[in-house]
Amino acid sequence: MLDDRPVTLVEDNRVVACNDAAFDDGITIGTSLATAHSISAGLVHFGRDVAAERERLRFLAEAAYRFSASVSIQEPSSILIEVDGSLKLFGGLYGLKRALIGLLGELGHRADIGIGHTPLAALALARARENCDLPRSPGPGDVKPAVFESLRRIALQHTELDAVAVERFANMGIDTLGQVFRLPTAELGRRFGPKLLDYLERLSGQRPDPRILVTPFERFTAELNFLQTISSKEALSFPMQRLARDLNHWLIGRQLGVTRLGWRFAPFNSPATTMEVEFAQPQQGSQALLSISRLKLETLELPDEVLSLQLATIRLAPWHDESRPLFGRSERAGHSPAELIDQFKARLGDGVCSGIRVQDDHRPELAWSASEPTLGTAARLDRRPPGPIRRPLALLRTPKPTRRRQLTLLRGPERIDVGWWTAADVHDAAHRDYFVARHANGSQCWVFVDRDGAWFIHGYFA
Questions:
Q1: d(CA 339, CA 373)
Q2: In angstroms, how far apart are the furthest CA atoms of the chain?
Q3: Under the phi-then-psi rule, with left for phi > 0, alpha for psi from -120 to 50, and beta for the rest, what region is 91?
Q4: What DSSP state is assigned to residue 155?
Q5: pLDDT at 120
Q6: What does the pLDDT look like over 132-142, one tens digit per residue?
Q7: Structural domain spans, the chain
């Protein structure tokens, strides 16, 4: 396992990150790759993928969309969220901070969070890991002074100033923002130029600092590239769980549910295998997404060795959270209809379940048709006003001949014309008289007698 071996992340032949095993061997940030291999004979190193990091940062920004509609990215590793309009919803700054830390933790990340009255103030506080001494329930005039006082303690190395400016200030004996704020503005401008003054004014809020806000993508796509190939379906459970969790947070942030998604299992040097999963109603929870996907995976033939895994949404729908009972639903109450439909389709195939759709035709065999199984279809059927005679929910494809003496008529007749106005029905241009009857075998059925006096069973009642 790689967890037991020293592993480093390398950029420009220098170590930029390492695991505990590598650190215990004496490898530190900045160590050259050659030195690191000489220190640890079993070292495994990987090149830094800046594009993947940028893509992940973008995903985290979209996940944070649930906290505010004003989310922006500060390269290379920061997310800025305007939270003033969301404080009451999340119980104030501390409640929102806990929720944000919890979200990032679920997604596998640790974050240093800074709370400031300007974007640059929040960035500096986060990089310095400076906690503002805010009141327990901050009022409208309390946050800004508290944050500003915290800014004075921040070392210049945690700001946006370049290394040359930081070094020049250090040569002057200045190493904190508080010391810089006390210097005459005109003198700073002459020595360091307008760029420094612009930064300080945006940092302190004296000048606007507009940001380009993140616009969430219309669909979700995420991919994992494995360090080692995976050859069993059981071993795919963890990466599938991670992608399902990522999708869950993306859906929550967009207030969407997914009704169809696609998995892609790619080997090293052969065609990838795809798997589409459909849901009877929009789903959002990671467990619901994962459980049906695993059921369908059982019947899928995978490549011998999977090197990458991709998850993408195919069809989305607005999310309308259902009302729940006051005391919740017992786990022993069984599966919901939607869950049963999804499980049947995942195990047996897409064609095993179908719904019934009402069609605008008075002829019984043409008044309904098979459709995708959805709860909405069932609901529409339940709301139909009862007719003068109760009919079975589904009919036989072809009416089955029977004998009159085998039937006990219970209700009827109901006369129905059978399409005399169409050329295809000229040979049967007459009527049928329908009855609810009990058959000699005990079943309750829907029968009719045609113009020639022949009797047929057209459907059975449940």
A1: 12
A2: 113
A3: left
A4: B
A5: 92
A6: 545 444 444 44
A7: 2-48, 74-204, 221-325+333-348, 377-460
Q: Identify whether the C-beta of residue 213 lies closer than 8 Å to the C-beta of residue 70.
A: yes
Query: Omega before 76 cis (within 30°)?
Result: yes
Contact present, 80 and 123 (Cβ < 8 Å): yes
Two tokens at 74? 């500060």
Distances (CA, A) of 57 to 73, 74, 111: 8, 9, 12
Amino acid at 19: N
Residue 19: CA count within 13 A, CB half-sphere: 13
pLDDT at 383: 46
Distances (CA, A) of 195 to 92, 161, 190, 249: 35, 9, 11, 39
The CATH class that applies to domain 221-325+333-348 reads alpha beta
Three-class SS of residue 341?
helix
403-448 pLDDT tens trace: 999 999 998 888 887 666 654 544 445 678 999 999 999 999 999 9
Please give the Cα distance from 359 to 270 (Å, whole number): 47
Q: With beta carbons less than 8 A apart as the criterion, state whether 225 and 239 touch.
A: no
Q: How far is CA 49 from CA 111, 149, 265, 313, 383, in A?
A: 20, 38, 21, 25, 56
Q: Residue 223 is inside which H or E element, if any?
A: strand 221-230
419 neighbors 388 (Cβ within 8 angstroms): no
DSSP letters spanning 27-89: --TT-BHHHHHHH-TT-EEEE--HHHHHHHHHHHHHHGGGT-S-EEEETTTEEEE--GGGTTT
Q: How far apart are CA 399 and CA 64, in angstroms?
A: 59
Q: For residue range 295-337, what is the model confidence (pLDDT) as tens digits?
A: 888 888 888 889 999 999 999 999 876 655 544 444 444 556 6
List all residues 6 or more positions away from 185 whose beta carbon is below 8 Å from its beta carbon.
Answer: 197
Find all residues with CB under 8 Å of 128, minimum gap 6, and list them. 114, 153, 154, 155, 158
Helix orientation angle between 185-192 and 163-171, rounded to the nearest 10 degrees: 120
3-state SS class at 280? strand
Cα atoms in the 13 Å half-sphere on the side-chain side of 331: 0
Beta bridge partners of 283: 258
Length of the chain: 462
Name the class of domain 2-48: alpha beta
